[in-house]
Amino acid sequence: MNRQTILIIVLGIIGILLPFIFPAYKLQISFLWILIVLALTWDIQGGQMGYNTFGNILFFGIGMYLCASIQVGMFFPLSEWTASGGEKTFVHEPDQFFQGFFVGILAAGLVPAIIAALIGYGILGLRGHYFAICTLGLGIAAGEIAGGIELIGAGQGMTVPPWPKGIGDTELRAEFFYFLSFILMVITFLFLKWAYQTRFGLILNAIRDNEDKAEAMGIPTMRYKIIGWVITAFFVGIAGGLMGNMVGYIEPVEVAFAGATLGVFMILMTILGGKGTLWGPVIGATVFHLFKEGFWTYFLGWQYVALGLLIVVIVVFFPEGLMGWIREKYPEKFGETVDEEDQKSSVEL
Q1: Better pLDDT: 69 or 299
Q2: HSE-up of residue 257 (Cα within 13 Å, Cβ side)
Q3: What CA–CA distances, in Å, run from 30 to 33, 229, 291?
Q4: Taking the CB of residue 71, how many other CB atoms lie within 10 A of it?
Q5: DSSP secondary structure string, 31-62?
Q6: 60 and 236 in contact (C-beta within 8 Å)?
Q7: Over 240-251, what HEC string results?
Q8: 197-229 per-position pLDDT tens digit
Q9: Which of 43, 234, 318, 327 could disulfide-link 47, Cβ–Cβ 3.0 to 4.6 Å?
Q10: How many other CB atoms are found less than 10 A from the CB of residue 182?
C-alpha cells in the first residue's frame, strides 16, 4: 500500500468523523465537499485540457433547478407550487420526499451531461479567450433565461421541498446531506484519479500541450474534449442538486447561475491549489473555503476586499499553485531527484 492510498484512507476516515467532531459546522463542511467537486471538475478543462471555462456554472444551475422541480412535480403541480406558495398547502410524505429527491439527483446529473454533449460540438471548437468568453456568455444567459420562466418561479425563485416531518430533526437532515456531499466528493476524486491514469488523461494533456500535433497524430481531440465536458457536467449537475436542497431556496442569478461568485470561485480554488494536478483542487478548495468562511464571519463588509487580495497573492506568489510551490520546495517528496552539484551551482549564481 503506497503513501497516497494511505493518505486517501486517512482523509476518508477523517471525513466520516468530522460531523461528529464538529457538529455545529456540518453545513459549512458540506459546502466544502461541494466546492472540492467544483474545483476537481473545473480542472478537467482548465488544468488537464488547457481550456479555461467560465461556463460550468451552467450545469450547476440546471442541476439545481431540475432536481427541485422533479421533487415537486412528481407529486404536486409545479406551477401552483411556485405561483402561490405550494409548500404551505402541500407537505411531502417521507417516501415522496426521498423518491423525488433521488430521481431528481439522477436527472440532475444525466440531463446536464446530455446538454454538454449536444452543445460541445459547437463550443469546444473554439479556443483560447474565444472559448472562455463564449462559456461566460452561456452562464449569464442561463441566469437571465431562468429569471423569465414563470414555471420555476421566474426572478423570485422557488423553494425546495422541506425536510419531511416525522423522520428526525434538523440534525438528521444536516447529516443526510453531509454524507451525500461527502460521498459525491469521494466518488468524483476516485473516478478522476483513475481516469487520469488511463489513455483519457494522457490525451487531455496532449491537447493542453499542443492540440494541433495531437490531431496530426490521429487523435480525435474533439471526441475527448466533449467526453471531458460531459464528465464535468454530470458531477457538477449533481452538486447543484445537492446544493439546492441544502440551501432550501433557489434564485436564478445569485444562487443557481451565480457566475460572479461561485463560477469565479471554482477557478480561483483550482489555481490556488495547482492546475493540472489531482490534489491541487482539493487543497485549493479547502484553503479557499477556510479563508472565505473566516472573512465572511469576522470581517463582514470587507470580505470582497480580502478576496481581491487573495487573487493578487495567488497570481504573484503562487502562479503554479500551492502544489507547484510544494513540488519546487520539496521535490524529493514527489519522487524527483535534484543533483546536489547543480543545486549548489544555481545557489552560487
Answers
A1: 69
A2: 23
A3: 5, 24, 16
A4: 28
A5: HHHHHHHHHHHHHIIIIII----S-HHHHHHH
A6: yes
A7: HHHHHHHHCEEC
A8: 999 999 999 999 999 999 999 999 999 999 999
A9: 43
A10: 21
**pLDDT for the residue numbered 116:** 95
For the ranges 105-109, 156-160, 293-297, the one whose mean pLDDT is highest: 105-109
Q: What angle do CA 132, 134, 138 make, to 5 degrees?
A: 115
Q: How far is CA 184 from CA 74, 181, 254, in A?
A: 24, 5, 23
Residue type at 326? I
Is the pTM of the predicted complex or chain greater than 0.85?
yes
Extended beta strands in the chain, E state:
158-159, 249-250
Please enumerate in sequence order all residues whose Cβ is within 8 A of that of 326, keeping only pairs 6 or more positions apart, or say none.
333
197 burial type by CB count under 10 A (0-12 exposed, 13-18 middle, 19+ buried): exposed
Q: Could you tell me if residue 152 is left (phi over 0), alpha (psi between -120 and 50 degrees) or otherwise beta?
A: alpha
| Cα dihedral across residues 119, 117, 261, 309: positive or negative | negative
The pLDDT assigned to 219 comes to: 92
- From the list 108, 139, 145, 147, the residue with the least C-alpha distance to 123 is 139
Domain range summary for the chain, segments of one domain joined by +: 28-282
Secondary structure string (H, E, C) spanning 170-191: HHHHHHHHHHHHHHHHHHHHHH
Q: Which is more confident, 327 or 17?
A: 17
**How does the average pLDDT of the chain come out, rounded?**
88
Which whole-number Å values give the CA distances from 75 to 183, 196, 246, 302, 313, in the listed order?
Answer: 27, 41, 21, 44, 50
Tens of pLDDT, residue by residue over 29-61, are: 999 999 999 999 999 999 999 999 998 999 999
- 14, three cell numbers: 477523517
Strand ranges inside 105-236, DSSP E: 158-159
